[in-house]
């Protein structure tokens, strides 16, 4: 008769944040820092306020053209916006489970 051997439990990891969520948070943060209303930024970007709101909440997967339009309306470059999103994602990783010794299986090369 076979013996059932329990497998060691792997530490559970929080799911990786989606790019669109981090992008949306950065867009909202920049807009708020500038003291702008959603409708004003959306008008300058040529998008509807509803669409910009959905971008900020991570509900839309915006095209590169849409991201560029909103970045332009906020007077930030795509490079600066992308760097801010990357920094946000790094900060989340640094404060998440991987930061306390959970092996992720990834090798980072600096």
From TrEMBL:
Keywords: DNA-binding. CDD domains: HTH_XRE (cd00093). The keyword DNA-binding applies. Residues 27-81 form the HTH cro/C1-type domain. The keyword Membrane does not apply. It holds the Pfam family HTH_31. InterPro entries: Cro/C1-type_HTH, Lambda_DNA-bd_dom_sf, TransReg_Diox_bact_type. This is Helix-turn-helix domain-containing protein.
């Amino acid at each position: 008769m076979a013996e059932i051997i329990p497998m060691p439990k792997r530490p559970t990891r929080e799911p990786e944040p989606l790019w669109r969520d981090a992008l949306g948070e950065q867009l909202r943060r920049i807009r708020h820092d500038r003291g702008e209303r959603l409708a004003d930024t959306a008008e300058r970007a040529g998008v509807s306020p509803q669409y910009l709101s959905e971008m900020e909440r991570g509900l839309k997967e915006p095209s590169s053209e849409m991201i560029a339009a909103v970045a332009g309306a906020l007077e930030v470059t795509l490079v600066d916006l992308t760097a801010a999103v990357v920094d946000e994602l790094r900060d989340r990783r640094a404060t998440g489970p991987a930061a306390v010794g959970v092996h992720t299986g990834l090798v980072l090369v600096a």
